[in-house]
Design goal:
With 69 residues, this protein is mostly beta strands. The protein has no helices and four strands.
């Protein structure tokens, strides 16, 4: 189960997450670092169809709480 599987979200397999809460992800770092400390909270993800940012959109996602899967 993934928070991105929720109906109505415009996120599909192969999309790129470019930013979390407005902070651009550093491609040289593990992207999960940007989500640390945000369990159970609503976060804003900037996603796109490709790494260049085509089809960029913002989605709100509620992250999983500890122990939830």
């Amino acid at each position: 189960r993934s928070p991105l599987d929720r109906a109505g979200l415009a996120v599909e397999d192969g999309d790129y997450v470019l930013a979390v809460n407005g902070r651009r992800l550093d491609p040289s770092r593990d992207p999960w670092v940007a989500l640390q400390g945000l369990a159970g909270e609503t976060v804003e993800l900037t996603v796109a169809d490709d790494a260049e940012g085509r089809g960029t959109r913002i989605v709100l996602v509620e992250t999983l709480s500890p122990g939830e899967d």
